[in-house]
Amino acid sequence: MEPLTRRTFVRTATLAGATWLTPVGHMLARAAEAKPKLGATAKSVIVLWMQGGPSQLETFDPHPGKNISGGSKAIDTKLKGVKLGEGFGRLADQMEHISLVRSVMSKEGDHERGTTTIKSGYRPDPTVVYPSLGAIACHELPAAGCDIPRHVSILSSQWPARGGFLGDGFDAFRTDDPAGPVPDTQSFLVPTRDTDRLKHLDVVESAFAKGRTRRVGATLHKETVADARKMMSSEQLKAFDVSKEPLALRKQYGDTPFGRGCLAARRLIEVGVRCVEVNLAGWDTHANNHAFHATQLKVLDPAFAALIADLRERKLLDSTIVLCAGEFGRTPRMNPLGGRDHWPGGFSIAIAGGGIRGGQVIGETDPEGKAEVKDPVEVGDLHATILKSLGIDYEKVSQTPIGRTVKFAEGEPIAKLLKG
Amino acid sequence: MLWAKNLLFGGVVLGGVIGLGANLLPPPPPKGAALHDAGLYRDANFRKTVDGVDAAFQAQWDEGGAKVAEPASDLQIARRLSLGLMGTVPSLEEIRQFESLPADERLPWWIEHILHDARTSDYFAERLARSYVGTEDGPFLLYRRRRFTTWLADEIRHNRPYDGTVRELIAGRGLWTDNPATNFVSVTSRPEMGNQPDAVRLAGRVTRAFLGLRIDCAQCHNHPFAAWKQDDFESLSAFFGQTHVGFAGIQDGPGEYQVDDKKREVMRTVQPKFPFSPELLPTDGTRRQQLAAWVTHPKNPYFARATVNRIWAFLCGQPLQSPVDNLEPEGATGTGGSALHPAIAILADDFVANGYDLHRLIRIIASTKVYRHDSASEHEVTEAEEKAWAIFPLTRLRPEQVAGGLLQASSIRTIDADTHIAWRLLRATQQNDFVKRYGDSGEDEFDGRGGTIPQRLLLMNGELIREKIKDSPFNASTRLRIQAPTEHASVEAAYLGVLTRRPTPAERAHFERFLADPALPKSQRFEDLFWTLLNSTEFSWNH
Fold first, then answer.
1. For residue B114, which of B308, B312, B315, B307 has the smallest C-alpha distance?
2. Average pLDDT, stretch B410-428?
3. What are the domain boundaries of chain A?
4. Measured between CB atoms, does A215 come within 8 Å of chain B?
């Protein structure tokens, strides 16, 4: 009898939650927001994280016909004179909404250190862990009735976005392919047993609190348990479930974990999540660079293009920044294995939405791969640009745990990318 | 001849099976009473240091009018030692052994028992490694973290003098696979610089990990208040300026250390020089050997102080002086550190005088009043009292400690080096998965952060906890259900196994009633009991 009861319960709960995603819900989620600062239109961020470091030459900065292309081709886009790597056929149609920075300068050529640098805007430092963009956004902008974590990492890599000195509470919540359930959020117990367990817990908690009342209170254990339970029963949790979306739309995003991740990202943004990171691994092409990039683009192109189109259709693009970046680029020179190695000094990212001007191209790399890049953009500048679009004071100074003062972003917003 | 071949084949197969069996199911080694020498703790020299530390704290408490907590129970202290040294809780089996000894022999036995356990050397090595080489994967092919920690664990297990270990780290030569200590250098190799080691990062590591100083803050600029200047850091880095990576591994050669002078846009040669106590510099050896000798010189006070402060932090959950890698340079102010606690100097003097003996240092700290008093008190403790260590601190456990505790608490028998290898492998995998989801706190070890929602979800609903409390002959919950004679015995054993204490009368009454309640199947009642204990604040915190 008993397993049947459980199953029935779970089923009923699922059905009850199927009708939640309404515009009213969205309005409620956003109602508590403070008035955005002047010029700030972005409310949330989606980071498409290209783990491994994609080659700028086969993605956003092709030099077809030149020596450094190593024979890779490029295609025209809706933007006159702006080319993308072959395989970006669908993204090419969205390019008037997207801008490229082709001159990002970093100093870290190691995967972990590079990842930390791009995600936090600072080079790794043994005295302090700098918070990532998403953590800063969650820390600075109101929570607005969101019961689920406001910072999410889908298909999380080894180094997901971190809360750093803002606290572990701002770390990205890690999930896998949205085709499966959100990890650790189902209790599998009949409700009575579930509430009984809480009663038992109270007995143990009060024994431990005796003689330690204030200090046990300060652990916030009780509050964290309550928050976790709130999340478990939240209707918003269903935002992770993309199977509710029309089949046609799902096809546009692509029937891949990354495609589903991008679709889930849009659904999460709608219920009030601040920052979603969707990870696409497999860019570390030390051998067979061109073949691997062609495979990767088959996943990235439909998902990225569908995300931009979908956000636009739902009038969400103006309030959502989409950033597509990896930890570094790849060498202009091909190695003997037909691969490209790590290249942090002058690579590309794509950015769109949330008050970022579309159709811009910042910086230029040398078609021969020799001269220095034009209009170099530091990682800190990129962070300042995004924070400013979110209405966050990017120069705001925080105290690190050891008492050092640091700004949210060390750099200046890129004027050409910001709408006036 | 065919029969001979068949016989040979049969013999080979049989031999293989026996070999495999012996590896997977080794006979349990004889469990003799662990060697412990209670006399060690009564030794006059040993007592003098312990009493000195106690007196230093007493003076501090008297001065501030702090009310001091009562002594903790032996079991509570055993749990602290276990978590601090082995990264897990005592097993029910061990607790029974512990309690079978006369009261005054329990803790001395326990300390020796765990000091000689492979769990301690492995766990301690991992924690030390974090301050030496961080948690990063490091450069491909040039760095073998696993080799490094195994070597370090071996140093700890054999209690080799700590100054020698550190000299090997700083000055070791050879291949990272062959001489694992050299991974300390090779982890900083930069692929974009022809794999040459990074002198700047190395100098930063040396000052932080071994001297408890943050001279590397002066790397970028002169701080107006700091004791160290940019020149100090550059000339310290120069000690690594002749270190190279080649076919023979880490080697030292000729050449000068050059830095890129951004202002003048030239490369500038920097000579090695110590920021203080230059008289301790030996005249011979490679630059790294000179640096190693200077760092570990008995007259260089920082080395012993930094070590003492770090070991204290491992044992107590918090360093005596915070932050752990920023001890105040004498006579300087404003570097973010605070005045040196007198107990650090006392412990450091003992450490130097007794040949950098880590085991002795651990025994001494574990014998002090501070280590042995309660984390609860009758009166409401003030923050000042907390800061003065008048009460034992509450510290959130690290992810490995929570995982280790969970795995041990769900087993009656001790999971240690004697456990079957298949079981240990499974345990290692489960622990790694759990730690990944729980969120590794990385290098920043002692910054007292609160718990997170994903951590709670993981302990409430995660796969590992479901696995470990479900009805299964391997789990403590099931074994208690079948073997414990009464509800009374079950509740007590569950509390001892998970929380290393006996239930209070109120807890006992509550859970005995619950275990006897026929409304739920019995296995589920036991499951719920274990779930509750494992989800308590008490389980996830050191106290």
1. B315
2. 78
3. 23-178+241-417
4. yes
pLDDT in tens, B256-315: 888 877 667 778 888 888 888 888 888 888 999 999 999 999 999 999 999 999 999 999
Q: What is residue A165's predicted lDDT score, i.e. its pLDDT? A: 87
Q: Please tell me if residue A196 touches chain B, with a CB cutoff of 8 Å.
A: yes
Q: Which of the residues B145, B456, B514, B541 would you substitute to probe the A interface, choosing the one with the greatest number of A C-beta atoms within 10 Å?
A: B456
Which of B336, B453, B521 lies at the smallest CB-CB distance from A149? B453
Q: Which chain B residue shows the shortest CA-CA distance from A200?
A: B532
| Other Cβ atoms closer than 10 A to B103 | 8
Nearest-Cα distance to chain A for B31, in Å, is 35
Structure token digits, residue B294:
């200077």
Q: Which of B452, B517, B523, B541 to mutate to test the interface with A (most CBs of A within 10 A)?
A: B452
Residue of chain A minimizing CA distance to B458: A184
- Which residues in chain A have their CB less than 8 angstroms from residue B520's CB? 193
Element (H, E) at B295: helix B287-295
Lowest mean pLDDT among A251-255, B267-271, B392-396: B267-271
- For A127, the 3-state DSSP assignment is coil
Segment A278-292 shows an average pLDDT of 95
Nearest to A343 by CA among A101, A93, A106: A106
CB atoms within 10 A of CB B175: 18
What global pTM score does this model have?
Answer: 0.80
Alpha carbons A360 and A379: distance in angstroms, whole number: 18
Nearest Cβ partner for A402 among B326, B466, B507: B326
Contacts of A211 (CB under 8 A, 6+ apart): B374, B376, B377, B378
A23-178+241-417 CATH choice from 3.40.50.10320, 3.40.50.2000, 3.40.190.10, 3.40.720.10: 3.40.720.10
Contact call for B192 and A169, based on CB within 8 A:
no
* DSSP code for B475: S
The length of chain B in residues reads 543
Tell me the chain B residues in contact with residue A401 when contact means C-beta distances shorter than 8 Å: 323, 447
User: In this predicted model, what pLDDT tens digit does every residue of A332-383 receive, in sequence order?
Assistant: 999 888 999 889 999 999 999 998 999 999 999 999 988 899 999 999 999 9
Q: Does B532 contact A228 at a Cβ distance shorter than 8 Å?
A: no
Location of structure tokens 């807890």: B507
Sketch out chain B's domains with CATH numbers: 118-202+214-295 (no CATH), 394-543 (1.10.3130)
How much is the ipTM here? 0.86
